[in-house]
Design a protein that fits this description.
The protein is of the alpha+beta class. The protein has helices at residues 12-18, 75-85, 132-139, 147-156, 171-183, 263-282; strands at residues 7-11, 32-36, 39-45, 50-55, 68-72, 91-97, 102-108, 122-126, 145-146, 161-162, 188-194, 199-207, 213-221, 223-229, 236-247, 254-260, 288-290. The chain is built from six helices and 17 strands. The longest helix has 20 residues, at 263-282.
Length: 292
Amino acid sequence: MDEKQELKTLTEEDLREFYPDIQLPEDLKAPFVFDVEGVPIVARPVGKHSWEVTDRSDLLKTPTRIKSDLLFHDLESFCRYVKDYKTESSTLYVTTAIKNLTFGAKAVFNDIKRNQPNWRDQIARYAPITSAEWDDWKSNNKERMSQIGFAEFLDEHIADIVGDGKRAPSAAEVLEAVTNLNDVRNVTFGSKVSLANGMASFVYTEKTPSGAVSEGHVSVPAEFLIGIPVFEDGPAYTIRAKLRYRIDRSNGELKLWYELQQLQRVFAKAMEAHVQKLEELLSGELPIYSGC
């Protein structure tokens, strides 16, 4: 059935109650059509005293009122659409949820006003798309990885790493650490030593095929910086990542992961820039309510 059709099962009493102006035919055993404010309604008997009532507004040449719900991912296109279709009953609602790292806006073109009820079903929404870099780093945040898995992740995202010329290592230094991690395989880790240069050194033992045992160490940065955009085509923000680790004492297996610092604060900055631009483009066009 067409999504525009609305089907209900009603009794004769229901018909008279819901449609007080209806003129019921003498023969209620056959389907019949009646009109409600210009909208054709089809009643088909399905029992002794009941009918399926179907809204057939889809048969009209044009709808009796506008009903839409559009989603935009481009801010300027969204604002142009709002300007083109706004009415005296239009309102813009901005939703900010920093805790959940979500943000969006909704324009209701046929909104309610004081003492003026309305349908509130002609809507345009704006939801910015987060960048691929943000999605990758956020989805793997606090996810424990094997030694090799951690090295592969850093290698794939080495372009996102930025140094500060001080304590945070450069991308080249992180790449060197990744290479060292990849070179050390089939070993047993025993302990970790924090170095003065901001690196963490893991001590390991390795048994050769001949049975000889050798010791070594591999170093990775205790923390590093990444520079990534929150939203597509947006500016990059610097985020600090702290290294976390765990050595399984039973088998010497090393697990590594990172924890991104102050994610909510970074998201808030990116969100505030969007809200500011939204308000600039639609200032004076319609009422704007934030924090909804």
